[in-house]
Amino acid sequence: MSLINIKINGKDIQVAAGTTVLQAAKKVGIEIPTLCHMNLHDLNIEHNPGGCRICVVEVAGRRNLAPACVTKVTEGMEVKTHTMRVLNARKTVLELILSDHPFECLTCAKNGTCDLQKLAQDLGVREIHYQGEQSSYKEDNSPSIIRDMDKCIMCRRCETMCNEVQTCGVLSGVNRGFDAVVAPAFEQDLIQSPCTFCGQCVAVCPTGALTERDYTNRVIRALADPTKTVIVQTAPAVRAALGEEFGLEPGTLVTGKMVAALRKIGFDKVYDTDFAADLTIMEEGTELLGRLTKFLNGDKDVKLPLLTSCCPAWVNFLEYQFPELKDIPSTAKSPQQMFGAVAKTYIAEKLGVAREDLIVVSIMPCLAKKYEAQRPEFAVNGNPDVDFALSTRELAHLIKQSIGDLKDLEEEDYDKLMGQSTGAAVIFGNTGGVIEAACRTAYEVHTGKTLEKVDFKQLRGLEGVRTASVDIDGLELKLGIAHGLGNARKLLEMVKNGEADFHAIEIMACPGGCIGGGGQPLHHGDSSILKARAAALYRADEEMKLRKSHENPEIISLYKEFLGQPMSEKAHHLLHTEYFDKKKVIYIEK
Amino acid sequence: MSRIQIKLKEQDYKAIREICHSFNNDPEELINVLHKTQGHFGYLPAEVQEAVAQELNVPVAKVYGVVTFYSFFTMSPKGQFPISICMGTACYVRGAEKVLEEVKKELKINVGETTPDGKFSLSCLRCVGACGLAPVVMIGDKTFGRVAPEDVKKILAEF
């Protein structure tokens, strides 16, 4: 690789050809401020429109200022990153952006975590010298995501996530000039579009333009209602990220403290979605072995590969984009919905509470879970199995407004009945985790032997599409893994065209899996945070005594007391679902 | 769960498919396809954009993005006599805006709209290359030069 000599603020450095001025400056310890730019290096996600002009620098011999994020170094280039001219230009650019931005910082959902707010503080903006027209758009309230485009600064990060990374094609820049905005087709609401509610647009939005639909107040109202019993479940990935909202290092596990906090807030029972993840493995694993056995016995009609069905955004993606494959995914409900279905029957009975008086809250790293909870097929006589799904961020707010902090709380354990879990469940939050958990159980159930080495390291990693084979005592299980819906599309195209011979495929919609979910604390473009969360979940798995789902004693007693066998009629009724064709069709009138 | 349906007449659907096929259903040809499609229908209503999106296998949001970006494309049907008022520099300084205001007042429509009877539609454009005649108004294939606001009523009455 050829090296290029440049000077930054008088300092000579050598950098590789193709380096941007922004990257070169970082090498000499200078952070040039950016706004529209985003680089999630470990996930190969880069958004470089060079549009906002916040990162401008002076380049000797160049008449105008150069945007550092898209300007490549050239031999002998002399760059100055913070001259008077540069600082004034950045401030002017920011003031112009702010002149068309509502001044609602104190009441905005992004207050304190907004990139635009931070930039205004960093650049010392104390006055807006420009006044002009303000953009005004109708607010879009979907069950998962709220779009308040008055706050959009047209960085178009969301558009990159939606089109290039997730390939959903919901969001596009529309109109021009002052009227330009990012919107679904015909500026309709998200609910009328093929939006999967993965929330990756929300995860990268630098302002309050895209936020989650907040159900915190509904939960507080339920907690305050003496006639209601309110129980809560917490998803695997939440425990590895919640601490960030309280200033803890990324990757800090706060499981016990989170349980203590939820109990202090007033939840009657604190349960674990990990329990339901173990239950998912029992059902999905049995289904996989069933299909596999039929296939090996020469049944040509059996549907393979089995696709995992835990991720609600991925299920939405399938229903909109690949409805012809809707018979392939496992019929097992997601852990959230399995938990809800069991809670409103088994737990309601155990606690002696009527279904209508039992409120099930879930804490999820995910925004699509909100939509999933509201699917009509997951309700009995209009009463949903899961009443409210809160994101990790909403839980942080709930803790802050109710008890302040969780750092100093004594660790506590989950409640009995649906609180025990195994290491196989906690890794559900990582890409590759569900399929690894399934392998651990499938091995033992299929062979009747004990699996000595439970770590299937070949299934781990951050490659977008991974393939691996696992030896189950002579039977070679061919597996595919994809995270990010664009990567999922690649695998699905192969399946559709009959080019794949996988037995099972795990798909998670968000880059990194649930640890990178749309409801997690904002990573602000730092992908090392996602890696730290993933490592934390594998650490949690290693620390567990039980690491295989079928060894979970509470799962064993749930089947014994209530469900019978995996895939039994009762299990089928409560724990399985079906998928729908939601692709837009053109109806031809004769 | 009900599926979203887009309704199209058979001959319209056929026309769209033919246009797309003539460009080998190449997504890169989106602008050309839309150009030709608008030529056929006179405008690009939502259901036509949906059909183009499906044929070219591009998101309909992207199609809508292109349609709303280029002022040539329109989602409302043009009138029998499309009115174009030149807002180029020469026409503008010689009072094109006052002429535009008068037309809007007279027809009770805004720029980009069509009169309810479908007779006139109104748009602005930049310089028709007849600056010597500024301000210039084109109606259908007729051109009117040195138009004053008080002429508007008389001109419209010709149609």
Task: Describe this protein with a few key phrases.
heterodimer, A: alpha/beta, five-stranded mixed sheet, four-stranded parallel sheet, B: alpha+beta, 43% helix, elongated
Q: Kindly report the spatial arrangement of strands forming the biggest sheet of chain A.
A: 2-1-7-5-6
Average pLDDT reading of chain B: 92
Estimate percent helicity of chain B.
Answer: 40-55%
Gyration radius from CA atoms of chain A, angstroms: 25 Å
Number of helices of chain B: 7
What's the total count of β strands of chain A? 23
How large is the share of residues in beta strands of chain A? 15-25%
Can you tell me the residue ranges of chain B where pLDDT is under 50 for at least 5 consecutive residues? none
Instruction: Quickly give the structural class of chain A.
Output: alpha/beta
Oligomeric state, counting identical vs distinct chains: heterodimer
User: How many E-type strands of chain B?
Assistant: 5
Task: Summarize the biggest pleated sheet of chain B.
Answer: 4 strands, mixed
* Anisotropy-based shape of chain A: globular
